[in-house]
Amino acid sequence: MRNIVKTLAVVIILVGLSSVSNAQSAQKIGYVDFNTLIAAMPGVDSVKIKLQVYQKTLSDQLDAMQAEFENKYLDYQNQSASMTDLIKQTKEKELQDLQSRIDGFKSKAQQDLQAKQQELLKPIIDKAKAAVREVAKENKFSYILNSIEDVVLYTEPADDVMPLVKKKLGIDK
Predict the structure, then answer these.
(1) Cα–Cα distance, 119 to 149 (Å, whole number)
(2) How far apart are CA 31 and CA 162, in angstroms?
(3) Structural contact between residues 102 and 62, judged by C-beta atoms closer than 8 angstroms
(4) Diameter of the chain by CA atoms?
(5) What predicted TM-score, i.e. pTM, was given to this entire model?
(6) For a tag on the chain, would you pick the N or C end, based on fewer CB atoms within 10 A?
(7) CB count, 10 Å around CB of 167?
């Protein structure tokens, strides 16, 4: 009786191991260069234009602030010899405050530009991700990897799903 239980346990383990190895060998992995895909998508050009306009607006505001600072600094330098200590301190404090506002604006402008880029690209990225998911399901891929530099060390050329995803999105390029 003991031998039968041991034999049965060994058979169950072997069957389990063989089904696990069959399941692992059945996984299909593909890759796509997601950045290239996004760059090829319709609407990216209009996003770039909108970002350039937004960046120009921020840049113009920064230029105006810096010009104001330079004018006030030149004025301070030209008139500092005739200023009282109290007026000098007041002007220096004004210049420091203006420089702080400029630094704060630079930091906030950079954050705003990144947020605007994410906001404008989100629908395009979501559409690309959805197409990748659909291609993966339709072609029975277990995984689709982003093939950006140094992420995938080896791939078979036949596993590049970029043409399938572009076809799904109607991109001819």
Answers:
(1) 25
(2) 8
(3) yes
(4) 111
(5) 0.68
(6) N
(7) 13
Please check whether residue 173 is in contact with residue 40, taking contact to mean a CB–CB distance below 8 angstroms.
yes
Instruction: Report the distance separating Cα 83 and Cα 76, nearest Å.
Output: 9
- The token pair at 110 is 């950079």
Range of the domain at 52: 2-169
Query: How many Cα atoms are found within 13 Å in the side-chain-facing hemisphere of 36?
Result: 14
- Dist. CA 173–CA 165, nearest whole Å: 12
Q: For residues 141, 145, 146 and 152, what is the CA-based torsion angle, rounded to 10 degrees?
A: -130
Helix, coil or strand: residue 88: helix
Determine the Cα–Cα distance for residues 96 and 30; give it in Å rounded to an integer: 56
Residue pair 31/157 in contact (Cβ under 8 Å)? The answer is no
How far apart CA 49 and CA 114 sit, in angstroms, is 15
- Give the residue among 137, 132, 138, 134 at the shortest CA–CA distance from 160: 132
Q: What distance in Å separates the CA atoms of residue 54 and residue 60, rounded to the nearest whole number?
A: 10
Which tokens belong to 106?
A: 């630079």
DSSP secondary-structure letter at 151?
Answer: T
Within the chain, which residues score under 50 in pLDDT? 5-11, 17, 20-22, 153
Helix, strand or coil, per DSSP, at residue 100: helix
60-82 tens-digit pLDDT: 999 999 999 999 999 999 998 99
Question: Residue 16: helix, strand or coil by DSSP?
Answer: helix
